[in-house]
Amino acid sequence: MKSLLHSIPWCLHYSRLLVSVLLLMFAFTDLPPAVIIAFCGYAILCDILCGIVTWPENRKHKALLQLDTKIDTIFWFCCLFYLCVHRPDFLGKHIAGVFILVCSELFIILLGLLRFRERISFHTILSRLWLLLLFWCFTELVSGRPAGLSFSLVFWFGLAAQLEIVAIACIIRKNTIPVPGIIRAIRYRKGLL
Length: 193
Description:
Helix content is about 80%, strand content about 0%. It is an all-alpha fold and about 190 residues long. The protein has one domain (about 1-160): Four Helix Bundle (Hemerythrin (Met), subunit A). It starts with a helix and ends with a helix. The model has no long low-confidence stretch (mean pLDDT about 90).
């Protein structure tokens, strides 16, 4: 039973990676929006399940949390590629906001490599909420809706989540995971946790 529980998070992660590859392939097809949304919904559900159901296992397994972060990044870049192919009109209007969010993600990857010699994988609460907003915006865009409001929320909330991650990286001395927010990072630094 214990080995089964140990393998569940790995299966959930790799199934999300498979959905990412499928999204790249689906970008060159005319599948109905409901199919694309269903695949993305499955990936989001796997991410949530991996975070909630297997949380005690994840906390003890740093490699699993880092894999989760890497697959999240791959998944959302595949979603962005899909939108580049199917919604270039929307991306053309919001290129500055998309560029800022992509650059902030790349900066966080670089910061983690320079500061801790590994990918930052804090799993903050803001980042988890941002995931839901990203899915809402992606769903609207795939459905052909304008998504102006949802993208505005994604942009500002995403920027706040990314700035929080940068602040946490500056506060803590070593790459500790998970760090749900700045207050926890301060407590880690003071040795209270």
